[in-house]
Amino acid sequence: MSLTTEKSKIIGTNKYSLLQSHSKDVTNAYEQVFAVMDGSLTTVSDNDATSKINIAMTSLKPTAEQIIALNEFHAAFKYIETRIDPLRLNFDITKALDEEICINRVSDFGISKIIIHEDGLIAYSFIAYKNISKEDILDFQLDGVDYESLTFKFFS
Amino acid sequence: MPCILHYIPPHLVKNGREPLALFYIGEFLYYRCEEAVKLNPFDSISLVDLSNNRSGSQANFLSYPEDVLYNTNPTALKPQEKFDKLSIVCLEIVELENNSYRKEFKEPVNLPIPNPTNIQQNVCVINLKHKPIECNYSHCTFEFHFNTIEVTFENYKTTLGAKANKIIRTKCKQEISKMIIKEVIRVNF
């Protein structure tokens, strides 16, 4: 199977929804990653969190503070990867208009978001869909960040 | 100057009508955006002059949802009559105060040296206003005022968009995101 065909299959699946990012550099970065992966989808799949965070690091131009936070989340995501249903590990990473790096997860209940501001301040947001009776959350991590707890909350 | 765009339907043309000060429960606002914005509004939402069309009430119809796709300001870069590829978000107004939408956020001023006695606060107010234009009487906007200054594209980086104001800005983005994701407008979510 040619790489082109592989790519056309990949686009549009949830696992690779990073490709649908608003960030213009992301698609190019993904293509570069695929180009050096010998077309092996298994490798990408096995290292999903790692791949997505690496691509975010190279394509979204994070600040030094954002890089530190992404590395911390990378470790937390790797830890949680072995402890929860892999289907729950679906997320993408984007850059917002005001330079925030956002880790996004869509579930049946609503949209969860970890917002990493330029200076490293982290906020956790959850917005429930219209007919879901769950409380909306906007929680700024002003007194230090427990990355593992936040990660569990994000994937719960 | 009257509306000279031939493709604008007659009900949208202002024709000297004055703005309506009040909004109504059950009225809809129509917002056009990329489909992806519906799923993730936080990333691309603008906190400057967020434009919508209002539906009006049963007694005073103003616009259909698809009217929001008309291009009322064609330029060389965007000459098309309609933004056919964009999506429409229908926001139902479910809660107002005195037939108005006004939401206020406060946050202590972020001083270079922390001071526990600091009582200075930044205030951001979101207001929904009916602001008809010649080719679109139903046009309305969410206006943002930061410490009484209206936020514009020109002053954004020194007001709501400043790094020091990230918390209050994020609260505003969360509020607008809730509207789009839940497809409702209420003063107290």
Describe the overall structure.
The complex is a heterodimer of chains A (156) and B (189). Helices cover 42% and strands 18% of the residues of chain A. Chain A starts with a helix and ends with a helix. In chain A, strand 1 and strand 2 (101-106) form a beta hairpin. The longest helix of chain A is centred in the middle third of the chain and has 18 residues, at 64-81. Chain A is an alpha+beta fold. Chain A has helices at 3-10, 24-35, 41-46, 48-59, 64-81, 147-155, and strands spanning 92-95, 101-106, 110-116, 122-128, 137-140. In chain A, strands 1-2-3-4-5 form a five-stranded antiparallel sheet. Mean pLDDT of chain A is 78; it is low at 1-24 and 33-46. In chain B, strands 1, 2, 3, 4, 5, 6, 7 and 8 form an eight-stranded mixed sheet that branches. Chain B starts with 27 loop residues before the first strand and ends with a strand. Chain B has helices spanning 35-39, 41-44, 166-182, and strands at residues 28-33, 50-54, 87-93, 102-108, 121-130, 139-146, 149-150, 184-185. The interface between A and B is medium-sized, with 28 and 24 residues.
Short characterization:
Chain A is of the alpha+beta class.
Give a topology summary:
The complex is a heterodimer of chains A (156) and B (189).
Chain A: H1 3-10, H2 24-35, H3 41-46, H4 48-59, H5 64-81, E1 92-95, E2 101-106, E3 110-116, E4 122-128, E5 137-140, H6 147-155
Antiparallel strand pairs in A: 1-2, 2-3, 3-4, 4-5
Helix pairs in contact in A: 2-4, 4-5, 5-6
Chain B: E1 28-33, H1 35-39, H2 41-44, E2 50-54, E3 87-93, E4 102-108, E5 121-130, E6 139-146, E7 149-150, H3 166-182, E8 184-185
Parallel strand pairs in B: 3-8
Antiparallel strand pairs in B: 1-2, 1-3, 2-6, 4-5, 5-6, 6-7
